[in-house]
Automatic annotation (TrEMBL):
The lineage of its organism: Bacteria, Candidatus Moduliflexota, Candidatus Vecturitrichia, Candidatus Vecturitrichales, Candidatus Vecturitrichaceae. InterPro entries: MrpA_C/MbhD (IPR025383), Nuo/plastoQ_OxRdtase_6_NuoJ (IPR042106). Keywords: Cell membrane, Membrane, Transmembrane, Transmembrane helix. The keyword Ligase does not apply. It comes from the Bacteria. Residues 8-73 form the MrpA C-terminal/MbhD domain. It comes from Vecturithrix granuli. Coiled coil: none annotated. GO terms for cellular component: plasma membrane. The chain crosses the membrane at residues 26-43, 50-68. It is a multi-pass membrane protein. This is MrpA C-terminal/MbhD domain-containing protein. It is found in: Cell membrane.
């Protein structure tokens, strides 16, 4: 189970780095953070998992989307 989560995290991380649409990158980073929280919970660290889910997927996603609304959404070609 751990290996599967790590491979999925690697794939999502690479996808987040290579996407040109910033909103899609933010969504991928939120999924990445939730999967990290799941991995931490599986590794018997529920306090770290709860913090990662709250901060990584919650607060930082909100801040990133708020900033995106005030700037350009797509990278210039």
């Amino acid at each position: 189970m751990t290996e599967i989560l790590l491979v999925v995290l690697l794939v999502i991380g690479v996808l987040a780095l290579h996407t040109r649409d910033l909103l899609n990158a933010i969504i991928l980073l939120a999924v990445f953070s939730l999967l990290c929280a799941l991995l931490f919970f599986y590794l018997h660290a529920p306090d770290v998992a709860l913090t990662e889910a709250a901060v990584g997927a919650g607060i930082s996603t909100f801040i990133f989307t708020w900033v995106i609304r005030k700037t350009q959404r797509k990278e210039e070609e």
